[in-house]
């Protein structure tokens, strides 16, 4: 059964995303973890999925999540907590459960983390062909609450569903606050400090739209029906796409005077119009504050390639050596693969 859809559109960066199996996303790994600990776990997955690395430096981790100062004492506390987390698969109705540690070890020395995954964990983060959840870390970096990350991960792992009914006790376990006395006795506090906080951030920063209904027995709230819909994730332009676009624009601008010197009036005016088109592209689309989609970058790259060919034809007609773009040898093959 397909999940419910909404009209939200959110930019997704594949280069900044991690993959986790559906089982891993719904395994409640984040229960009881602080936001920094969730970020550290996700960055370990990210590092491994980028190039198989099991080492990363603290400065890169801080930059990814915009953490101002991550002290050695913080690293120690978080590493100790992460070595304790377990991945579990439970089917108690069928008399089956599995538990294992996520990490075999985590080491830290002079700003560098070195970690070793448990072998049973690896299939849930590497070589995933289907039934996985893609999480963009640039989106989750916006979360200020670990509760938001916990609920976001869990709902996205429930692929094809659009609601779930949870008892109050089950909801507290999901968020890792089942031992907090104030939440046990005061459901209003649970709502205002946990559930509402998570839903507010998810609705603000992600493609999900989440709400809930209270489940009551008499006047008492005994559970919650969490309801959600999913918007559209739009791929961001990759660094490769942007680099190629910038290379073509830079090459054209570097030789603008050569186009202005074309003798044939009609060809010269056409060449200068193409240069103005490149100027428009640079001004409106290649500024740092503009986030291009992958589709738009592909469209611009094809147009830039065609315009570059035309400029070269105009130069050839004038008897001038054709323009070459530095570092663009794979350009046309790459464009053909889009």
UniProtKB/TrEMBL annotation:
Instruction: Please name one Pfam family that this protein belongs to.
Output: Rep3_C
Annotated GO MF terms: DNA-directed DNA polymerase activity
**Keyword annotations from UniProtKB, A to Z:** Coiled coil
Q: Outline the extent of the Initiator Rep protein WH1 domain.
A: 18-155
User: Phosphoprotein: is it a keyword of this entry?
Assistant: no
Coiled-coil features, chain-numbered ranges: 294-321
GO biological process per UniProt: DNA replication initiation
User: Can you say what this protein is called?
Assistant: Initiator Rep protein WH1 domain-containing protein
């Amino acid at each position: 059964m397909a999940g419910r859809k909404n009209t939200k559109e959110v930019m997704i960066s594949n280069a900044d995303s991690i993959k986790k199996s559906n089982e891993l996303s719904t395994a409640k790994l984040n229960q009881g973890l602080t936001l920094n600990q969730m970020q550290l776990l996700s960055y370990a997955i990210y590092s491994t999925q980028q190039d198989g690395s099991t080492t990363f430096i603290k400065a890169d981790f801080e930059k990814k999540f915009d953490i101002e100062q991550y002290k050695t004492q913080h690293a120690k506390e978080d590493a100790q907590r992460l070595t304790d987390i377990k991945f579990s698969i439970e089917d108690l109705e069928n008399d089956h459960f599995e538990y294992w540690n996520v990490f075999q070890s985590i080491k830290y020395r002079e700003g560098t983390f070195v970690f070793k995954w448990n072998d049973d964990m690896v299939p849930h983060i590497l070589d995933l062909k289907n039934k996985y959840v893609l999480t963009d870390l640039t989106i989750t970096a916006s979360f200020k609450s670990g509760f938001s990350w916990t609920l976001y991960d869990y709902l996205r792992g429930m692929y094809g569903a659009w609601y779930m009914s949870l008892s109050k006790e089950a909801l507290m376990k999901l968020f890792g606050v089942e031992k907090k006395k104030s939440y046990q006795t005061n459901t209003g506090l649970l709502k205002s400090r946990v559930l509402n906080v998570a839903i507010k951030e998810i609705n603000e920063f992600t493609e999900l739209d989440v709400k809930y209904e209270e489940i009551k027995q008499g006047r008492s709230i005994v559970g919650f029906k969490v309801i959600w819909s999913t918007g559209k994730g739009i791929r961001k332009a990759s660094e490769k796409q942007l680099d190629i676009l910038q290379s073509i624009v830079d090459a054209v601008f570097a030789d603008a005077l050569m186009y202005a010197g074309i003798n044939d009036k009609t060809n010269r005016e056409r060449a200068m119009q193409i240069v103005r088109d490149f100027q428009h592209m640079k001004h409106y689309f290649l500024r740092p504050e503009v986030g291009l989609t992958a589709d738009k970058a592909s469209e611009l790259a094809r147009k830039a390639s065609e315009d570059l060919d035309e400029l070269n034809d105009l130069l050839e007609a004038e008897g001038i050596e054709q323009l070459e773009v530095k570092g663009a040898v794979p350009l046309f093959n790459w464009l053909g693969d889009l």
